[in-house]
Design a protein that fits this description.
Keywords: CBS domain
Number of domains: 1
Organism: Dyella acidiphila
Number of helices: 5
Largest sheet: 4 strands, mixed
Helix content: 25-40%
CATH class: Alpha Beta
CATH superfamily: CBS-domain
Strand order of the largest sheet: 1-6-5-4
InterPro entries: CBS_dom, CBS_dom_sf, Diverse_CBS-Domain
Low-confidence stretches: none
Pfam family, one: CBS
Strand content: 15-25%
Number of strands: 6
CATH topology: CBS-domain
Distance between the termini: 27 Å
Structural class: alpha+beta
Protein name: CBS domain-containing protein
Oligomer: single chain
Length: 133
Amino acid sequence: MTSHPRCCAAGDSVEAVAALMREADVGEIPVVDAQRKLLGVITDRDIIVRCVAAGDAPGSSRVQDYMTAPAQQLGEDASLEQLANLMVHEAIRRVPITDGEGRLSGMVALADLERTKARSLKSRIARGVSRPP
């Protein structure tokens, strides 16, 4: 898990979030409120498909209009099996992790599983999230 991931506010510009993604080399940014409670997520795909391809200007567009909310998430006490099941069932590659108060505490990406002993789970998830709808 990546602890204390970069995040943004719902009122931030899409352009600023895209720059944050480039700087952090990530494809998803959690959207949080002032107390770091998870409101949703915005992905590079959200920006391209929902904003740019629709002809909207990223500099004047706000994250709240393009983010995915509510976001799929798991608590800090979730097992790797629960993580794998969520990723496969929802066909997602990244999952925000929240504490008991709903505040963002980390992100788990498919790539994070490669660095663990759970490589077989990574393979199962990769097949599940890559399957055609």
